[in-house]
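Q: Sequence in, structure out?
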Amino acid sequence: MNGRERIINTLKHQAVDQLPWVPFAGIHAGALKGYTARELLTDKDKLIESLLEVKKIYRPDGMPVMFDLQIEAEILGCELVWAEDAPPSVKTHPLELSKEVPCKCLMPSKNDGRLPLVLDAMTALRKLVDDVALYGLVCGPFTLASHLRGSMIFMDMFDDEQYVKDLLDYANEVCKKIADYYIEAGMDVIAVVDPLVSQISPDHFKQFMHEPFESLFTHIRNKNVLSSFFVCGNATPNIEVMCLTKPDSISIDENVDMMTAKAITDKHHVAIGGNIPLTTVMLLGNQQDNMKCTIDLMDSVSHDNLIIAPGCDMPYATPIENTIAVQQAIRQPEEVRKMIENYEAVDDDIEVELPDYKNLERPLVEVFTLDSETCAACTYMMAAANVAKETFGEDIEVIEYKYTIRENIARCKKMEVPNLPSMYINGQLKFKSIIPSKTELEESIKVHL
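A: Exactly. Output:
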């Protein structure tokens, strides 16, 4: 059984000879060949060369062709901010100041933006690779609508429900169109990546998201292609309602307990993938950390309907040996068990000094993120804080702590931050994996003024 068959069988709930492995080597693929993230995401030849290197080194069963949630947003008028070691982020939101819904006649064509690059790469890679399942990643309707409207969409969910539904309907039609292009290019799995789903309640999901997502996954299924529902952050409360939209699989990150989530997905006959920690293990850990984490993950749940993968797009600078260690643990679990049987992870001995919260001169808003430049949920959590800063000016202080920095990991542990992103005001947890509306955040700050 080859890797492609292994992924397809898993998503169809059929037997496999071993656990499938999908390294989400998005921008990290470029690092393998010495290309920057921007070079990788704007040059077809460099993209293909890098993906073939991923296949050679990491021996995956499945792999994404392009991990960039801004492709659709860029076509629809959002300006992007580019980085050398991260995917681009959305800078401007065309509908931020005007509550409009674009006409459904305005759909991306195959010649728009970077779609020609992506489609050419998919077609070429499909001809070169027949033993690995190829994933086409589509920006999900909620995150795409947020790219267009900005953080105002969270206020709209309370103030103008019909507008949100109409905008999601448009965004969903865009998703279907992009999915059709990727299916024509030979993708085995259409992954709908919507990190902002973790930032809303199950009630809001049922009210706004169920219909578009169920329609989208039905559309993909009717094309005889498999689907996956990618989510970032603490999506635990939403796993059940996500399953009810009938994707073939769900992919989670380390904010979600795999045992808890798999019990739910198994009940609904949905496969699940994840959730090796990106920063603490893959980026900043060593080989033994990655082996132990993978073995522990494999031992925690049944192996049916399971894919082992990083929690999301791997950091650019992830050490090659760490990813190979994960692959070894999956392929040779008994040998790896012997290698790590006496291994104990050592915590970094980093001392951090917390502010004197009781004697602050002004309210302090602390935002704990994976990285607001690369994580969409973190981007909008940080955007909410920045809007508050614009409103209150020098009367408040706003700080972001990115989890990609060792000192900030230690700070998260000392603060006992439960999930990322989270927002604290004067040392008190106010918003955990839920992006506040402008009014909610302002009211929380005023209490401390």
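DSSP finds 19 helices and 13 strands in the chain.
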